[in-house]
Amino acid sequence: MFLKKIRFILIITLFYQTPLFSKSASLNDFNAQNLSEYFSGIVAFENKDNAEALEFFNSSRILIENHDPYLKRYLYSLVLENKINKAINLVKSNKERENTNFFDAYLLLVLDNLKKGDFKKAYDQLNELTDIVNDKDRFNSAILESLRQYIYVFKEKVILNDKKSFGKLSIISETFQRCYLGDFATDAFFSELINDKEGNYIRYIFFYLVYLTENNRINDVKNFTNNLDYLNTTLLISQAKSWVENGNYEKLTKFFSCKNPNDIIGEFLFLVSNIYSSQDNFEKSNFYLNLSNFFNPKFIFNLSLVAENQYLNQDYKKAKKTLKNFRKDNDFYYWYRIKKEAQILEIEKNKKESLNYIFLHFNKITKPNNKILFDIANFYRNSKKYEEAINYYTKLINSLEDDSVMKSDLLYRRGGSYERGGNYEKADKDLLNALDINPDDAYILNYLAYSWLERDYKIDDAIEMLEKAYKLENNDPYIIDSIGWAYYLVNDYLKAEKLIKRAVELMPEDPIVNDHYGDILWMLDRKIQARYFWGNVLEMENTENEMIENINKKMIEGLKNS
């Protein structure tokens, strides 16, 4: 509540520092009711309550027509509430008043004409929009350039020669343009994206499969999906692989078509949304995401990003409503829904309820795929049911080739489950086998070495492994803590202090790291500081009971034999 009040004060301050009365408006045009609704709408908007904001924004025609910031916020709220046609009509009705001279308003007009298939008009609107975009605004410039190229291709049926390049964004755009035209180079463009080592463009495998299917290249579709592993790919690609294996090729083209301009623009807008989401700008992300769904409402899988954004914004009611779109006939997305609902359940109730929900729905699946088995194994492990976790990890391990990198990861997870269950012989065997497959995996090195440290076993070998892990991942706080603790165990307290101090800085709320730091400080005869960090451990919510008992003893007695 306090933050909301502060935000309200800031809004009022900004309000009086900016020209309220644009164009021909005068002070007499606005009354107390107008201003009250204005402030209330902005506060609701800033607090991410778009539905409430709209109630206030809808109430003042005077402000809509005369105050540009008000109109901007109003348009945003409409799009964020999926009232996109209303937003477009609002821009059209205010165009003559010249208070819609801003990016989002012009963009809505361009997209409106694009969706209607009036490419000439869309192109003309785009030129107007280009005039108001600052050259320094590189991202909006990239959006405009991509749209210019798309519209030209849709209108002229040829690739535009005179064009600016914006790196991978331009390559993605041209890939879809060539896909639309059925161009001979489409395969090569998709291949460049899919095999790019610098970025994650695995999503475009889906659209490549669509392209192949639309061109009756079913054998190519089968061959491509045969090389995909459920455990090592995304939700969307896993779903596509499942369809292909079950002969449901029509599903691929049901949700997207390279021949449909609206589908292509929808995917482009999704890409923009995803970029904003990766920057934690969820408002902008949802703005473009809703526009994406406006263009291609068939592509329900994009709603997973909607649900994620709603979840991250703690709007659990909306998230649960969005998740209802994923039904059992699309098995991978249905399982995603169950997991996300379980996450919400843990927040709203408790972890036990969440896990029960997961296991209840898992037991109803007659033939769970490897991705679901992987998830359920992890859930069992996280709930400390190590025997069950080991059983499912074993099933998965037996299904993979010996040199599979994924097998290394599964051995690591199963080994960790054995270790937590107290079976150190089998734990060591799994973790060493995992390192045979992937000797430069810093996290496997760290886990095995730390396990040895805890058992006072092969300390020198453990330190050697940790030094290697540290070279590979020198900013990982867990690895820093492990190697620092190793130096503590061999009485090199100065080295240990330097490292674990950094681990504490990186993970100030971790009880184990604070406990370790306290022990080191005690051995360096900095006993007041040691008790301070031990005391921190007692204040932390995630400190386990056994650790609390040990800390209480140390607070009274210190470290024995020191």
Question: What are the salient characteristics of this protein?
Answer:
562 residues, mainly alpha, Serine Threonine Protein Phosphatase 5, Tetratricopeptide repeat, 32 helices
Describe this structure in words.
- It is a single chain.
- Among the domains are: 2-101, no CATH class; 168-259; 456-562, Alpha Horseshoe (Serine Threonine Protein Phosphatase 5, Tetratricopeptide repeat), CATH 1.25.40.
- 72% of the residues lie in helices and 0% in strands.
- The protein has 32 helices and no strands.
- It is globular, with a radius of gyration of 29 Å.
How are the SSEs ordered, and which strands pair?
Layout: H1 2-17, H2 32-46, H3 50-57, H4 61-66, H5 68-80, H6 84-94, H7 103-115, H8 119-132, H9 138-156, H10 168-181, H11 186-194, H12 204-214, H13 218-226, H14 235-245, H15 249-255, H16 261-278, H17 282-295, H18 303-312, H19 316-323, H20 331-348, H21 351-362, H22 370-382, H23 386-398, H24 405-420, H25 424-437, H26 442-454, H27 459-472, H28 477-489, H29 493-506, H30 511-523, H31 527-539, H32 545-557
Helix pairs in contact: 1-2, 2-3, 3-5, 5-6, 6-7, 7-8, 8-9, 9-10, 10-11, 12-15, 13-14, 14-20, 16-17, 17-18, 18-19, 20-21, 22-23, 23-24, 24-25, 25-26, 26-27, 26-28, 27-28, 28-29, 29-30, 30-31, 31-32
In short:
This protein is mostly helical and 562 residues long. The protein is built from 32 helices and no strands.
According to CATH, the homologous superfamily of the domain at 456-562 is Tetratricopeptide repeat domain
Summed over residues and divided by their number, the pLDDT gives a mean of 84
Just give the CATH class of the domain at 456-562. Mainly Alpha
Helix content: over 70%
Give the amount of beta strand, in percent.
under 5%
Alpha-beta classification:
mainly alpha
Under CATH, the topology of the domain at 456-562 can be stated as Serine Threonine Protein Phosphatase 5, Tetratricopeptide repeat
User: Low-confidence spans: pLDDT under 50, at least 5 residues?
Assistant: 1-32
Provide the gyration radius in Å.
29 Å
List the total number of helices. 32
Number-wise, the strands total 0
- Largest sheet report: none
The first-to-last residue Cα distance is 50 Å
| Multimer state | single chain
